[in-house]
Amino acid sequence: MTTVLTLPRLGETMEEGRVVAWNVAPGDAFRRGDVLLEVETDKTVVEVPALADGVLAEIVAGDGVTVRVGDPIARLAGAGVTPTAAPDPVAAPDPEPMPAAAAPAPVPQPSGDRVRATPVARRLARQAGLDPAAIPGTGRRGRVERGDVEQARAARDGAAGLIQARGLAYRLTGPAGGGPVALLHGFGADHGIWSGLAAGLARAGRRVLAVDLPGHGAARADAATPAALSAGLVPLLAETLGAPAHVVAHSLGAVPAVDLAEAGAAASLTLIAPAGLGLAIDRAVIAGLAGARAPGEVAHLLGRMAETPLPLSPAALSAIATALARGRLRALADTVAGDSGQAVCLRARLAPLADRLPVRIVAAQRDRILDWRDMVTVSPRIAVHHLPRAGHAPFWDAPQDVLAVVLSATAG
Question: 35-54: string of b/e by CB count within 10 Å (b at 16+)?
């Protein structure tokens, strides 16, 4: 006997879903409770379990295919097979570790086999620019879990050490001779926020410079004002990329990005949720980051910037908290947010730049730090890309969309 498995409704508003990955292959037997596949909805990634024992006879909708609720996705065989029911519309957590005398050794993923990974691990790997198939899994049957991805990311980032120059710290990735791209972070961040985007750009053949700006991360120079964030950048780009370069900036990083463009060191500007276009700003987040001391504080504050769970490990949060606890950003915070709101204005400076070079803005419509509507009322010569489901850090919420925009800006 065969049964048609249709896509269940995984949330009240769900009309369609995308098959992320099948965890069983045609011909494989499964038991009740086994996860058959993972489905991405407009809100999250959900595991779909079997409600009875059976065999996967045929996959109708393969990995990456988007189908509507109720459409066939597979055929199941077996005497006890019944259609699966919709689980609760929440992201499935990593399974609890099985009791054991010792921690399990990592199990390399079999070559050519479908990668076994939890939805959380898949998302974190995608955001970090890592291939789940290359990550040893410590979960049941070699399944890649969150901790495995975090460990792989830490190993990768640690292997490529930061370089100190001109009071700044930077990491250079991608093929020599590739199209030059400079990544500038925002207030309270460092080069690490770009790990996923930088990896995607490097895979596409770009030469990528990710900088710790003055007062941030491992940079030795300090910055008491937004203007000081540009110190040393022009010669650094010339020495590492051969300026002009395609400059990508987030939030307050728009200030040094505009400075670079006015100095003739930018071939194009891509400003992601940029500051300086309106009064609105979450002053509590700015003040909080300037005075944060504990990883928990940092997690809550950075959580305001994303609509999805933070792609940062406990070690990364601890490192950020350690850097912020030095108090280097307090003076800068006072000059960024005044009593009325933003104390930085870039609007008048952007308009003439758009006459000289391509300028793009990425407006995230769920931004809780700035008002995305301020980013729309700019010069008609500036291209505005809208991300309706992304927060203030859209490279975390919509990494593929942001990568596509940046690749378009840096083509040629």
Answer: bbbbbbbebbbbbbbbebeb
